[in-house]
Specification:
Layout: H1 4-23, E1 31-33, E2 53-68, E3 71-78, E4 87-90, E5 94-101, E6 112-113, E7 132-139, E8 144-149, H2 155-160, E9 164-170, E10 180-189, E11 199-201, H3 205-210, E12 215-218, E13 231-234, E14 238-247, E15 252-257, E16 261-265, E17 272-276, E18 278-281, E19 285-292, E20 297-303, H4 307-311, E21 315-321, H5 361-380, H6 398-402, H7 404-413, E22 419-421, E23 424-426, H8 437-448, H9 460-469
Parallel strand pairs: 1-2, 2-5, 3-11, 4-9, 10-14, 13-21
Antiparallel strand pairs: 2-3, 5-7, 6-8, 8-9, 10-12, 14-19, 15-18, 15-20, 16-17, 16-19, 20-21, 22-23
Helix pairs in contact: 5-8, 7-8, 7-9, 8-9
């Protein structure tokens, strides 16, 4: 019997010849190590004019990482981040793939690349136990942007824990040049706790089967593409986004608030659409999105199943700098008061009383901050300054500081009608949010501790007393 190790050089020579015979492309020549992109970055475009043998080394890493502030999760990853490293090859390349699983891993893993023409997309050849490495090869026959993911049973659990990424197979002529390229991938995280519940969270199989994720995020965490981690561009530049959906369950309605997608490569194939507002990306699918920025500002990337964006984490930012063109967008030119008939307080669905129990004032502030950021900041703004003429400030608020019980009643029951805050009249409607006594106490204690407020500490018993009085 001929040893497999002696057959390998022969197979590596034979495979590209077979691919050339089937696909009509020239056989690969030469060899190079793949440059892998760390999200949200992608490797540079391929400039060579011929296929080659591309060697890819991808290491599995199981590690605890931030999911949102105060919340951690044990992710399983390709390369140490979610999504996994971005792989870029050329049509006709012979890809020699090495999957490494370190000895300190707890689980076996493999990889299914949707760019592979072969059983399991490589999964049948790459099952790798801790402390081992596996190698297989494939020829990139079809151009496009493809998802890869772990396909070890239970497959959904491996994907939900972060084991997904993308591989781009460029056509021989490459993609049209653009100024910036970024890598964005949506996925769900099924935690035992609700959104924002603190500490190290465990995977919840029942929620995953029922498709009830507490988190839907871009690039593995809430805020992974915002603040200091926001994508950036300049006015006049053309941006290309490689957008994928790891799933494992939900389709993504990908939308860029304030920008129209000039070109969308639907499902990352050869078909294209133009002037698109929202593009649908199925789990295990991808899209290539291109647009030119005309005016500066912060543009939000969202899943337009909109509660996922503002309540579960599927939100990112593209910050654009440069000169303003008022002919494209004027900004605010007038501000006045409009009050339609029938304005009334709306009541949000009540929550169960499952908020974490704070043992100290410091814990109240920490829990309240997470609740403020997920529920209140959309109106009152992350810095507490509100929006002039629409939402009153909670920063340095004389309305809040003057009467604790009135503030409690406002959060408990909502409020309508004009109020004066720091000398400015606001006439808007605040909904009743259905918060528990613990949640009301935490969020008010956080607000009172910030932005020049008077430091009042609100206890759940204080809220219960106001609730009992019907105040």
């Amino acid at each position: 019997m001929v040893r497999a190790t002696r057959l390998r050089p022969f197979l590596l020579f034979l495979l590209p010849l077979l691919a050339a015979a089937c696909g009509g492309s020239a056989p690969p020549s030469g060899e190079e190590d793949a440059v892998l992109g760390v999200p949200p970055q992608v490797p540079p475009p391929i400039t060579r004019d011929h296929p080659t043998r591309v060697i890819v080394h991808l290491e599995v890493k199981e590690l605890v990482q931030r999911l949102t502030d105060g919340v951690e999760y044990r992710f399983w990853t390709f390369g140490g981040q979610v999504p996994g490293r971005f792989i870029r090859v050329r049509q006709g390349d012979l890809v020699e793939f090495h999957l490494d699983n370190p000895p300190d891993s707890k689980m076996p893993h493999n990889i299914d690349l949707h760019a592979v023409n072969g059983p399991g997309g490589g999964a049948t050849s790459s099952l790798t136990v801790p402390g081992r490495t596996s190698t297989f090869s494939f020829t990139a026959l079809n151009p496009g942007l493809y998802v890869y993911h772990c396909a070890t049973a239970p497959v959904g659990m491996h994907i939900a824990n972060g084991m997904y990424g993308m591989i781009l197979v460029e056509p021989p002529g490459g993609l049209p040049p653009v100024d910036r390229e970024y890598y964005v991938m949506q996925g769900e995280v099924y935690t035992a706790g609700d959104y924002g519940d603190p500490g190290l969270q465990q995977f919840d199989m029942a929620k995953a089967i029922d498709e009830r994720p507490p988190y839907v995020v871009f690039n593995g965490a809430v805020g992974a593409l915002s603040g200091d981690h926001a994508l950036t561009a300049k006015v006049g530049e053309t941006v290309r986004l490689f957008v994928g959906n790891g799933g494992p369950n939900l389709a993504s309605s990908f939308h860029l608030i304030g920008e129209i997608m000039d070109t969308v490569h639907q499902e990352a194939g050869t078909a294209t659409s133009h002037n698109v507002q929202t593009t649908l990306i199925p789990p295990g699918g991808a899209a290539i999105v291109e647009f030119t920025i005309n005016t500066p500002g912060t543009y939000l990337l969202v899943d337009h199943a909109i509660f996922r964006a503002f309540n579960k984490g599927a939100l990112g930012e593209l910050v654009v700098t440069g000169p303003t063109d008022s002919a494209v967008y004027s900004g605010r030119t007038y501000e006045g008061i409009y009050r339609p008939e029938g304005s009334a307080v709306q009541t949000m669905p009540s929550t169960n009383d499952s908020a974490p129990r704070a043992r100290t004032t410091a814990e109240q502030v920490a829990f309240g901050q997470r609740l403020f950021e997920s529920t209140c900041a959309a109106c009152h703004q992350p810095d507490g300054k509100g929006l002039a003429g629409a939402f009153p400030p909670v920063a340095g608020s004389d309305f809040l500081n003057a009467d604790r019980d009135r503030a409690i009643a406002t959060v408990l029951h909502g409020r309508s009608g004009p109020i004066t805050v720091n000398g400015e009249v606001f006439d808007a409607v605040m909904p009743a949010l259905g918060l528990s006594d613990e949640q009301v106490a935490n969020v008010l204690t956080y607000v009172y501790s910030q932005w020049g407020n008077n430091g009042t500490v609100v206890r759940p018993a204080d809220v219960a007393a106001v609730r009992a009085r019907g105040q």
